[in-house]
Structure formats: C-alpha cells, structure tokens
C-alpha cells in the first residue's frame, strides 16, 4: 500500500501571512513541538507559538512535547520532566492553542516512535550524524567534547516523530531547512529500501522573528539567563526589563539615542503598537525620552499581551486534572495513528510476524 502522499482536502482559500510550503501544494497535517526543559519564554512566543495558533485553523496540527528528547541534555534530572510537561502544556493553552483544534502529545507515551527510531538507525551512518550542522552547532554551544548516543542520534529520533504521524509539513525557519532535508533523506531511503510506507515531509517556511536576549545576545534562552518567561509575574518582568541592555552611548536622558542598536527598542518593534514604536524612535533620536520611561512603556506593552494569557493560565492551573486529560486524550488519538503507521512499516519490511 503506497501512502507516500495523502489525498486530503485543505481549503485552498486559506492563506497565512509569511507562510508557504516549498512545493506550493496543499497538505493536511503539520507536526511541531518543544522539548520540556523549562518554561517557555517570549522568544518561543514570537518564534513559534503565535504561528501555531494561526496554523491550527488551517492544518490538522500535531504538537509534540518531546520529553524523551529532553533527556538528551537533561538525562541526570528525569524527575523534573513531569512538572516541565505540565508547565509547557500550560504555556500552550495560555497562548491560545486549542485542544479541539490541535492534538497535543506526550512523546514518551508513544512507544512506536522509539521503535521507528531503531529501524531508521539501522541505515543512518554515524558520519552523517557527526556532520549534521544542527548537531555540530548545538554541541559547540553546549561545550560538548564527547557526544552521547542519544544526543548524536537526535535527528533520527526527530525524523521518527514526523514520520510516525505521517506529517506532511513541518513549520521551520529558513535556517532549519537542513534539518528537514536530513529527515527527508531518511524517509526517502526507507521508502527506497522497503517501499513507500512513509510520507516524505516538506518544510512549511515561515518568517520566525528571532528575539534577542535581555543582555543583547542574539538569542533569548533560558540557559543564557536572558529570558522573559511567559509565566513570569509582572513585577519580575519589570525588573528584568530594567536590566536590559540599551544604547551605551546615552548617559543622560537628553542625550540623542540610537534605537537601531537598542535591545529595548527591538522589543518595542515586536510588542508595542506601531504608533507608540514610531514615537519612541523619534523621541529617542531627539533625546526627549529617557531609557527608564522607554522601559516602562515596554513593560506596559508586554503586560497588555500577557494579561489574557495569564487569565487562561490561571484557569488551567487551578484545573490540573483537566490539563492532563487534554494531554492523555491527544496522546491516545496520536497513538492510534502511530500504531497504524508502524503496522504498515513492518508489513513493508516483511517483519510483521
């Protein structure tokens, strides 16, 4: 049975700003997700979460909480996973990911992912993994001199995540295209060896704006200590904004500023209304607004965005069992699809005994 392409009806009139797939075709299912290594922050919100909220109205959306993959860098603290899974789920629900539109899955509860990972690993070479740009970059960032098996095989596991649910598309930024191409090669090789049981995924290209860190680092990250978390209270956010890097050449509020090099202004462009952003740019250059006032304005802008999220977060936080019910329901739905996919895989491999 050839299932490399799914005949599915996706309304062609749906359009999503700044989003396209690499072939121009219409698809039904997307897969995306996060490793539950800690709370999600504003960088996640800008880079992927807002996009997912929009895409769930267009595609059959599967969102994977990749707890097994979290162990590749946090294997020494597995006891943290349960709370981290819950916190990530709270973040999802708070930003507007709707369980009736999106299927949220706990990775470790889908045994079929692990089995498909093993099958893929039989023909993926160590050299291919060692030269994978994603692995090389992350290993360098983390200062790893030796790579454990799970970390090195991370791209194989991610490919199994995509393939087991027969996802047609994976939302990525242009810098992540090599990762999707690696997954495509694995699936293509599997289909060449055993027949077309799996869908070769394509990239859903999106403009994911990267949010710089409070310290001016090119990336906001929990591990860098430069992040504003979606779950932070407003006093904590205000304190963090006060520490953010600004234009070092400004000593007095009346000194002309250079908003193009200011971290706070880059946040205004992302979180503030366009009218306020233009006024702040003008006043900063003219030296008629100080950094303290500028930071206070930013705090109000971020606060206005987070208020409705906090209301949803509090609702679900007080109903923890409902959150777990959502996770288990999504996982059970996904498991049925994964089980059918693995059955087809084994049939094609002639190991369905």
UniProtKB/TrEMBL annotation:
Catalytic activity reported: tRNA(Trp) + L-tryptophan + ATP = L-tryptophyl-tRNA(Trp) + AMP + diphosphate + H(+)
Keywords assigned: Aminoacyl-tRNA synthetase, ATP-binding, Ligase, Nucleotide-binding, Protein biosynthesis
Protein EC: 6.1.1.2
Pfam families the record matches: tRNA-synt_1b
InterPro entries membership: aa-tRNA-synth_I_CS, aa-tRNA-synth_Ic, Rossmann-like_a/b/a_fold, Trp-tRNA-ligase, Trp-tRNA_synthetase
Record bears the keyword Protein biosynthesis: yes
A biological-process GO annotation: tryptophanyl-tRNA aminoacylation
PANTHER family xrefs: TRYPTOPHAN--TRNA LIGASE, MITOCHONDRIAL
Entry's family note: Belongs to the class-I aminoacyl-tRNA synthetase family.
Protein name: Tryptophan--tRNA ligase
Native source species: Acididesulfobacter guangdongensis
Gene assigned in the entry: trpS
């Amino acid at each position: 049975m050839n299932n490399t392409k799914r005949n599915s009806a996706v309304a062609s009139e749906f359009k999503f700003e700044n989003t396209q797939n690499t072939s121009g075709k219409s698809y039904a299912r997307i897969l995306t997700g996060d490793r539950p290594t800690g709370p999600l922050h504003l960088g996640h919100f800008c880079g992927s979460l807002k996009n997912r909220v929009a895409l769930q109205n267009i595609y059959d959306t599967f969102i994977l909480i990749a707890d097994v993959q979290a162990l590749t860098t946090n294997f020494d603290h597995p006891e943290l996973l349960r709370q981290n899974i819950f916190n990530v789920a709270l973040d999802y629900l708070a930003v507007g990911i709707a369980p009736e539109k999106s299927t949220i899955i706990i990775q470790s509860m889908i045994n079929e992912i692990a089995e498909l990972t093993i099958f893929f690993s039989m023909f993926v070479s160590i050299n291919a993994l060692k030269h994978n740009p994603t692995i090389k970059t992350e290993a360098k960032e983390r200062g790893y001199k030796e790579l454990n098996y799970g970390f090195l095989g991370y791209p194989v596991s991610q490919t199994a995540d995509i393939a087991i649910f027969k996802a047609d598309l994976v939302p990525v930024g242009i810098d992540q295209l090599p990762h999707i191409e690696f997954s495509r090669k694995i699936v293509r090789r599997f289909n060449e060896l055993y027949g077309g049981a799996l869908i070769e995924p394509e990239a859903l290209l999106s403009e994911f704006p990267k949010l710089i860190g409070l310290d001016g680092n090119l990336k906001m990250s929990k591990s860098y200590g430069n992040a504003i978390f979606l779950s932070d209270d407003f006093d904590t956010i205000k304190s963090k904004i006060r520490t953010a890097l600004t234009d070092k050449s400004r000593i007095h509020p009346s000194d002309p500023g250079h908003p193009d090099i200011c971290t706070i202004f880059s946040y205004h462009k992302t979180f503030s209304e366009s009218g306020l952003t233009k006024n702040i740019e003008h006043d900063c250059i003219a030296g008629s607004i100080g950094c303290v006032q500028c930071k206070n304005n930013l705090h109000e802008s971020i606060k206005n965005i987070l208020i409705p999220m906090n209301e949803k977060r509090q609702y679900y936080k007080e109903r923890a069992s409902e959150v777990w019910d959502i996770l288990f329901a999504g996982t059970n739905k996904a498991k049925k699809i994964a089980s059918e996919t693995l059955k087809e895989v084994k049939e094609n491999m002639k190991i369905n005994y």
